[in-house]
Please model this.
Amino acid sequence: MTKKVALAYSGGLDTSVAVRWMHEEWGVEVHCVAVDVGQGAGDGAGNDTLVERAMAAGAAGCIVIDARREMAEEFCAPALVANARYEGKYPLVSALSRPVIVRHLVAEARRVGAEAVAHGCTAKGNDQVRFDVGTRTLAPDLEVLAPARVWQMTRADAVAYAAKWSIPIEATAEKIYSIDENLFGRAIECGEIEDPWATPPEEPYTLTKLTEPDDATFTVGFEAGRPVSLDGTALDLQSLLAAVSRLTGARGFGRLDMVENRRVGIKSREVYECPGALALIAAHQDLEDLTLERDVHHEKARLESRWSELVYDGMWFSPLKSAFDAFFAETQRFVTGEVRLRVSAPGALRVEGRRSPVALYDHGLATYDAADTFRHADAEGFVRLWGLGVQTWAARQARAAERPAPPA
Ligand code: ARG
Model:
């Protein structure tokens, strides 16, 4: 019986070539799985075109799955709760979509009775790590095939291969950038960006083109750590992300330019535009300042960077990541309230106000005016004991300094 393989299919050049190549070289039957995680218009291919293309490339079948809601609720929401910023900057855009795709890939492999899954990632990136490790944690028995890791074709070779097999791909021979997009933003690599000294070109940006010169203020409502409304109107997370992205992106907010450490040991210069994600993380973080107890807050902040590393490194389905999620969920019970933000062109965002029915901010304790409720008399003793250890140490040091040096 012919071996069956479920392939994560994007409709682009590489995965289309992968369909034919795996069939020709490995003699396998390829079942394509196209997962919509909010990649927008992509290269203009609608669902029908995508399926036609897969079939033209030689697929035995192709299913298209709308996973945008799932992506928002089960992947973007935990990232917001975790204030996820890999290396303090990158909100994990691509790293969040891969486990969503893996989940559907494994499900399709089971449905068609495939022994293997496949993806179109190259040997140099993080995405192969996320596909391979994600699959192995969800389905340890499935084999993972990565044709682009072994076929040694350049982009021009792949274009020629597609032409030879009459695979209908739009003219992509001189495509400069590699772009990955989903609900959380866009990741842009290649071309002149590969020179870390070069100013990023304006051309590949779409979400952060400056079109609105005037300031805008808006209020995001949170319930138990999750953003649930914009200016008082309840919205699901997918719509909320889109709306905040438009509002802030139109004022040029949300660009990142960084040199990052890939899991495979390569430093890479990449640029991102993630206006919605970065604005919501800023708002969420600010509300935590108001509502989290100090020790919980500090401990959570320490774990956030570990969470981001795990997800970046393809460990979405790992037990440590799940344990962190359980801890974070416990911390979010009272992260409820509103944050008011102002975005000003070009690209400045700041929080202007925050409020919560369960705020730990206590005006009576904080104020310097007549409404003061703080017990001033408690301070002196507390502070004396707080400093007692170092005071004792300092006194001993002073005395030791006065003592003559012991004879040599
Ligand atoms: N460097 C980022 C990451 O590893 C973005 C990867 C984008 N992927 C792509 N195929 N362009 O998450």
User: Anything to note?
Assistant: The chain is about 45% helix and 20% strand. The CA atoms of residues 10 and 220 lie 33 Å apart. The mean pLDDT is 96. Residues 94-95, 126-127, 178, 180, 187, 189, 270 surround arginine (CB under 6 Å).
